[in-house]
Amino acid sequence: MKQAILVRIDLKMPKGKLAGQVAHASLEAALDAKPSVLEGWRMGGAKKVVLKVNDLEELKEYIKISKKLPHALIKDAGRTFFSKPTITCLGIGPASDEEIDKVASKLHLI
User: What is the pTM of this model?
Assistant: First the structure.
């Protein structure tokens, strides 16, 4: 089992901001999973991959194809780095490696 976090690279977030957004996406997507799936993922090491998407349009395509899996779209409030609320990333899973790979296998690591 694993989780994929898709991050918009067009936003050019500083490393700390990116890390915070990825953490939000991981937690929120995990909370969207069934308790048994969440527990199995946690007991298996809570594997995650952080992948890049080019922009909001590309991220929206992945939102559509991940609807059947646990997921969370993250919108930053716009109080620090961004001047307005901004969609930054999408957490998908936990789910089986096969299910995650069906959605995100064409993406590259950050």
Answer: 0.96
